[in-house]
Amino acid sequence: MHSEKHREHLAKGLTYRDLLSDTLSRDLFEKLPRSFDIVGDIAIIRIDEKELLRYGVEISSAIMKIHKRVRAVYARGPARGSLRIQQLEHLGGERRTETVYKENGLRFSVDIAKMYVNPRLGSERLRIAMDIKDGEFVLDMFSSYGAFAINIARIKRCLVVASDINSDAVTHMRRSIYMNKLLGEVMPLVSDANTMPLRGVFTTVIADNPTNILESVEAITNALVKGGRAYIYALTDEPEAMGREIERSSGSRLAIKSYYKVKEYSPRLNIYRYLAIRV
Ligand SMILES: C[S@@+](CC[C@H](N)C(=O)[O-])C[C@H]1O[C@@H](n2cnc3c(N)ncnc32)[C@H](O)[C@@H]1O
Questions:
Q1: Does domain 118-278 fall into CATH 3.40.50.150?
Q2: Are 204 and 132 in contact (CB under 8 A)?
Q3: What is the mean pLDDT of the chain?
Q4: Where would I find the H helices in 48-131?
Q5: Cα(80) to centroid of ligand 1, in Å?
Q6: What residues flank ligand 1, with Cβ below 6 Å?
Q7: For the whole model, what pTM was predicted?
């Protein structure tokens, strides 16, 4: 149900920025991000300008005025460390970091303060799920809260082992498995990908840890059956050279068949997905 005021804002096509134009100096206003993520009922906005954080209350209430389902607003810094968790600062609304968000008809339980969460990869995850065949044995090696694994099991009758070193992420994955109707099975596992005990068994491996992928190429290769394939995500400014580096790190047991730019990461660096075959 929308209030009269909310209907008025939407009808005028107003954004949260419009509500701040009289509050901020022209200079600061120009630095306000034009977009932000909404994960379930939590808005997460990237604010690089320290000065803007002083207006956290005003920014959060402008966001909540325009987006009525938002209950909490956080500013985020870059994802850090091997768990890729983003630094958060509460701007307004409820002090809560757990939520449930929807993607491709699925519901995911997440805690944005405890695990890597990216609501923008829904179409990439669906694209990979469509490639998987019924009956496959899949490893989602850096699964976080299980987004690839659960997207795959939604539409394919296969078995997906979904592992991550972050036990909080795996706890939320378990919840999400029960919250959704799946055709296939997902087996959650807290495990270090680089010491994965299952070898030579998986028909497909998904390796989505782009900032540190080269240290795991041997483990990816070992996990695959001969003829199996891996989708390997890597951050680089030289995609051709990175492809050769992946092949070299596998001891020439992986052959790169193609690569594709998935998203821009910074002005220089992009994230690429490599399709590799275990020869
Ligand atoms: C980019 S995030 C993965 C995102 C996830 N695939 C998705 O679709 O949202 C990388 C993940 O790798 C996990 N990770 C980092 N090093 C690891 C390791 N050695 N073994 C297992 N997981 C690891 C982190 O905890 C993090 O959840």
A1: yes
A2: yes
A3: 94
A4: 50-53, 56-66, 122-131
A5: 12
A6: 82-84, 116, 118, 121, 142-144, 147-148, 164-166, 169, 192-194, 208-209
A7: 0.93
